[in-house]
Amino acid sequence: METIILAVVIAVVVLGALGGLIVGTRRRKSLPPPPPKAPDITAPPAEPHVGEEAETPRDEPRRTIEEVDLPGGPPVAVEEPPVPTVEAPEIEIPEPTAGRLVRLRTRLSRSQNALGKGLLTLLSREHLDDDTWEEIEDTLLTADVGVQPTQELVEGLRERVKVLGTRTPEELRGLLREELLKLVGTDVDRTVKTEPADRKPGIVMVVGVNGTGKTTTTGKLARVLVADGRTVVLGAADTFRAAAADQLQTWGERVGAYTVRGPEGGDPASVAFDSVKEGKEMGVDVVLIDTAGRLHTKTGLMDELGKVKRVVEKHAPLDEVLLVLDATTGQNGLVQARVFAEVVDITGIVLTKLDGTAKGGIVVAVQRELGVPVKLIGLGEGADDLAPFEPEAFVDALIGD
């Protein structure tokens, strides 16, 4: 019995020892290894922050540049750069208009007297037969005089040559001069109407196709008026052509004329209306309105030109409507003239580039076509090359000395 009890005790002890050994082994296997020690890392310097992340600056003593001692001399004074000043354009004094065409006669005769010399040469022939008179007709037609005026001139010359009999060069020249003056017309009022008796200012509207020199002519006309002692306001109603308003304003600034302008592509009738309004308020003598160049084949655009005229006349009637034509276009200029005359009442013609063509007969043709006189002619690119048309000086330039 004691032996059995002893065996049981030994078995219990052995089992307890084995159980403890197994538990200890499992615990040793489940424990993770300790983490390695982290190395010491030096952080990089902090970058400056901006905006909301910026730190509040610390108050530190600061010195101005004047307080810093610089080696080798006294402190350097810091100067502010000068502010550029915009100088007003210098006002020019245009040449007086009296006798301006006479002064420009040489330039005109340089290209125009081919017509006169050709006619004088033909008339100086010993026998003036039918063939010669046909040559005279061809010469006049080539110079764009027109069919009806040419027939009138040739008939007058034939009659007077028959009566005169012998013909000296001086007699022929005088004869041709008289007949040409009849065609051009000496009894027509060619004054540009800018001084209405009952009000101020006078209102002048300038019309024409782009490329004829319309805006330039408006600027030159302002110079002519200023030279005669008038004050002028310019209306830049050509709002469709790029830089047209700038071009006109430059012309105005040169003679001290104020320019009314609107936004590019804006309503030209509105600009024209404001121009007359400004002219009244400023008390100037003349308002010149430069209109947009119209393609005379476009009905809608021509109707718009009529609208400009109607809007301006809400202030006062127009005193002048000047049609600008390029003398070098010849008969095509007559087509333009007809269409413009249907839209607005043309009162006068300005022929530009007359020094660049030998077809001086366009003066006669366009007057006959419209029934209105040529009042101004352009004889070059210079600022003072626009002259009042004088029939005697023009004919003298045609036939030469």
Automatic annotation (TrEMBL):
Instruction: Please provide the record's keywords in A-Z order.
Output: Cell membrane, Cytoplasm, GTP-binding, Hydrolase, Membrane, Nucleotide-binding, Receptor
Q: Which GO terms describe its biological process?
A: SRP-dependent cotranslational protein targeting to membrane
> In its keyword annotation, does this UniProt entry include Protein biosynthesis?
no
Top-level enzyme category: hydrolase
Q: What EC numbers are recorded for this enzyme?
A: 3.6.5.4
Please give, as recorded in its UniProt entry, the membrane topology of this protein: Peripheral membrane protein
Q: What does this protein do?
A: Involved in targeting and insertion of nascent membrane proteins into the cytoplasmic membrane. Acts as a receptor for the complex formed by the signal recognition particle (SRP) and the ribosome-nascent chain (RNC).
Q: Which PANTHER family match?
A: SIGNAL RECOGNITION PARTICLE RECEPTOR SUBUNIT ALPHA
UniProt-listed SMART domains? AAA, SRP54, SRP54_N
State whether it acts alone or in a complex, and with which partners, per the record: Part of the signal recognition particle protein translocation system, which is composed of SRP and FtsY.
Q: What GO terms are given for molecular function? A: GTP binding; GTPase activity; signal recognition particle binding
Gene for this chain: ftsY
Primary location:
membrane
Taxonomy, superkingdom: Bacteria
Compositional bias (Basic and acidic residues): 49-66
Which reaction does this enzyme catalyse, per its entry? Answer: GTP + H2O = GDP + phosphate + H(+)
Report the GO terms under cellular component: cytoplasm; plasma membrane
Query: Which residues are listed for GTP binding in this entry?
Result: 208-215, 290-294, 352-355
The record's listing under InterPro entries reads: AAA+_ATPase (IPR003593), P-loop_NTPase (IPR027417), Signal_recog_particl_SRP54_hlx (IPR013822), SR_rcpt_FtsY (IPR004390), SRP/SRP_N (IPR036225), SRP54_GTPase_dom (IPR000897), SRP54_N_sf (IPR042101)
Query: Which positions fall inside the SRP54-type proteins GTP-binding domain?
Result: 373-386
- The protein in question is named Signal recognition particle receptor FtsY
**Similarity comment text for this entry:** Belongs to the GTP-binding SRP family. FtsY subfamily.
